[in-house]
Amino acid sequence: MNESQTASSHSCCPGPGNFGPGNFPPGSRRSFMRLGLAGFASMSLPGILRLQAANLAAEGGGTKSDREKTAVIMVWKPGGCSHIDTYDPKPQASSEYRGPFSTIPTKVAGMHFTELLPRQAKIADKFSILRSMYQGAGGHPAGSMQMLSGDSDTRDKPAPRLPDWMSVTNYLRSQEDPRTNPLPTYVGVNPPTSYNGPAYLGDAYAPFSVTGDPNSPNFVVPNIGLTDQNEVKRLGRRATLRQKLDTIERAFDQQGELGALDEFETQAMTLLTNPRTKDAFDLSQEDDRTRDRYGRNTWGQQLLLARRLVEAGVEVLTSGLRGPLCGRVNNWDDHAVNHHVFDALRFRADAYDQAVTALVEDIHERGLDKRVLVVVTGEFGRTPKISHQPSTGAGNASAPAGTKQPGRDHWPRAFSNLWAGGGLQTGRFIGATDEKGEDSVERRCNAGDFLATIYHHLGIDSSNVLINDFNGRPTVLVDHGKPIRELIG
Predict the structure, then answer these.
(1) Which DSSP letter does residue 6 get?
(2) Which residues contact 363 (CB under 8 A, 6 or more apart)?
């Protein structure tokens, strides 16, 4: 495959689930023997999870709601970050490839970053870098869908065909014991991309979305923590009335859609009426030193809010690093027509380096590093070979229109991502690209491996868990990939 086939230079930017026989839940071996294979194969996911919970309770293990659940914070760089200019420098390559940034040592012997990431370099023993990531799609939609849902289709589609791992996790965990935490399972703080979603699972499993600038003094999260008790009572009366009115509708609800609506509305009511929810989203409760540590900017406060929410019980948290801190076009899509790629990287590097460093350090210092996994990635890397095109407009990190400037285009054949916490192996750089950074050549990992590793941390066997699609056909979560053994140990 040549560069023209993979790089782009344009400006852009539920049915019941079940387990397969190979994925019998932990702690239920005796029930499996009693039921027999045929009985097991006919059970629904809720039935199996109830059986698992009963077995664990009988054996003294308690239910899942009694134990602290694992969580994931995914930090998304929409548009794709240049691997050569950050985590995988190529100082020996020719000038048309290597870029202008010098390399610096990290705390891990033999691991070097570029000068743009001095803070992360100092704590490199607290995370691992996978340098040999690749996927097969050169467009933002298809690349994002490959990374977030495992869709191997290389065509750009207007909407996802498969649910992303975040919605899947939300769905599967909703089938477990009733949630006692008033916070949603899944929250997006300026969610990462428009190219993902719950697909056939339905909107009830989409994130509770928080938008805006958490660094703004006027920042508020709407629809949480009502303090007016009269209004709380009025909402309660309205909810009771709706429950009475839809009694007849339920008799004709063959697809269980009203059940999903109930879950959605119950979550909304809880957010409105439980005072704990307002506290969890309130950054003013963090001391000034902590807020300064993350950076008094949008990205820093986004990631601080992410840490605050998972500590309070949110289990899936996504946050997209986009907007004015990226440069003129508000994302990492550093084509020459959009940005002067090197000016753009300099422009955003300090806020990015500070926020990610603070998040990684914070989850360790607060004892969250086993329970909470942090993953930092985008949909692909950028072309190792630098291109030059006229800018389409002046702005931060971009020269006036018509000015020729350097850029890097889409590159799915090789890129890097960062893994921290989650009880993973840290202080490692895994895999390698060739001397120009064009191809992953050692310990190649694809989008399926990426997803399987996240699911592994969440306790989900992604190669065996099945969820029914739009047609009622059982669909495996990940059909191409395994957890990355160098990370999980």
Answers:
(1) H
(2) 307, 369, 372, 374, 420, 421
Residue 48 CB contacts under 8 Å (≥ 6 apart), including other chains: 18, 19, 25, 28, 40
Of 171, 213, 151, nearest to 379 (Cα)? Answer: 151
| pLDDT tens track for 251-309 | 444 444 444 545 555 666 667 667 788 889 999 999 999 999 999 999 999 999 999 99
Q: Give 289: exposed, middle or buried? Use CB within 10 Å, 0-12, 13-18, 19+.
A: exposed
Domain ranges of the chain: 3-225+274-488
> Is-contact 360 79, C-beta < 8 A?
no
Q: Which residue has the tokens 């929410």?
A: 309
Of 384, 418, 431, the closest CA to residue 82 belongs to: 384
Residue 467, strand partner residues: 17, 475
Residue 220, SS3 per DSSP: coil
How many other CB atoms are there within 10 angstroms of residue 49's CB atom?
22
Query: Cα Rg for the chain, rounded, in angstroms?
Result: 23
Which uninterrupted H or E stretch holds 278? helix 275-280
Which CATH code fits 3-225+274-488? 3.40.720.10
Dihedral sign from CA coordinates of 333, 339, 341, 344: negative
Query: Which residue type sits at 339?
Result: H
Helix (H) / strand (E) containing 352? helix 341-365
β 316-320/186-189 pair status: parallel
Cβ contacts of residue 212 below 8 Å, gap of 6+?
190, 219
Helix (H) or strand (E) holding 317: strand 316-320
Is-contact 409 8, C-beta < 8 A? yes
Residue pointed to by tokens 């839940």: 25
Q: What is the per-residue pLDDT across 141-199, written as a single tens digit (0 to 9) for each?
A: 999 999 999 999 999 999 999 999 999 999 999 988 788 888 999 999 999 878 999 99
